[in-house]
Sequence to fold (248 residues):
Amino acid sequence: MGLIKSLESVGEYVVLMKRAMSLPDRTREFFKEFSKETYKLGVNSIWLVMIISFFIGAVIVMQIALNIDSPLLPRFTVGVVSREIILLEFSSTIMCLILSGKVGSNIASEVGTMRVTEQIDALEIMGVNSANYLIMPKITAFVTFMPVLVIVSMFLGLFGGYVICLVTGVPPVSTYVYGIQFFFRERFVWSSIIKSMMYGFIIASVSAYFGYYVKGGSLEVGKASTDSVVINNILILATDLVFTRIIA
Fold:
């Protein structure tokens, strides 16, 4: 029964995405909603990304500097390893796991509340494609804004490491900066941006699915919001594993 229910859920998700990602009936209304969702889901998340990235970047550099203390390794290794961790995994995967809690729960609760208060039913009665009207602007806005969040996270993460080197002197700032620049590969940045856009689609679409098909009242909306975050995290990690294996 569990397998059948899971397959049914996958089928419902695919059908919902087919409805949601169709051409909008009114382009003007779509761009209006797109702008609103970009600000709500993307711009309002910048402060969270900035704070977390700065402190995590500082902690990463501090931990690596304390644990890589071998005469066989040059001190600029701290900058190299910190750069790889921040660019390849933290600013894309780990940051999206954090954002799935903020953005995913927001989308699921908003759409779920509209479902239980019968606002979605009212849109359907008026002949509006409710999935397209409600979900497509959220998905496109969040996916489009993800590269901005990733680049901000990369910069603040590396800057946090710079500040901790400036304060503690371990390693020296010049050594840390040299390590960041040493054998830099631009494709790491692009792969992180591509991954983050994939994760953005997962977060927005899965959360919208859980909210769209919620049944019951406010308690069920809360449960749907929680379930969406859990499933988002699992899918993000699974996608990260597959994507890393493909580009390796």
Q: What stands out?
A: The two ends are 38 Å apart (CA to CA). The mean pLDDT is 90. Residues 77-116 form the longest helix (40 residues). The chain has one domain: 26-247.
